[in-house]
Amino acid sequence: MEPDALSYNAGISRMRERRAMAAGAAAAKRDAGGEAGARRHHYSAGISACEKGEQWQRALALLSEMREVKLDPNVISYSAGINACEKGGQWQQALSMLRTMRLRKLDVGFTIYGITASMCEQGGQWSQVLFLFREVRDLVTGK
User: Fold this and answer.
1) Cβ(139)–Cβ(111) under 8 Å?
2) C-alpha distances out from residue 135 to 77, 113, 115, Å
3) Where are the PPR repeats (predicted)?
4) Full-prediction pTM beyond 0.85?
5) Between 117 and 38, the higher pLDDT residue
């Protein structure tokens, strides 16, 4: 029996259904944090877009908006905000976010310390640079 247009269309429909199911499963896995996780993901994506567009003020506004709607920023949100501040030369804001991350017991990576220390150095804030290096040293040595 030769396949005809009807059987081809049926096969294509089944392929579309499988792709839609796979995409739905991937979205469910990505948004495993529920509605809050999905919203946090969207805010973080917006903050990252602001970073790429060198809109540090808008990135900070989105971080502030997250807190206003009772949505705690995560490491990704803060990291994108710090990167946006780097592009805008805003060492004070970056340092403030890094401190907030530490107070909230978020996992601050060495890259974020390095970016923030570099901004402080460019701003002539040598005492802040030394403080950040001490923090990194203490993290590495477990003090």
Assistant:
1) no
2) 21, 9, 14
3) 74-108
4) no
5) 117
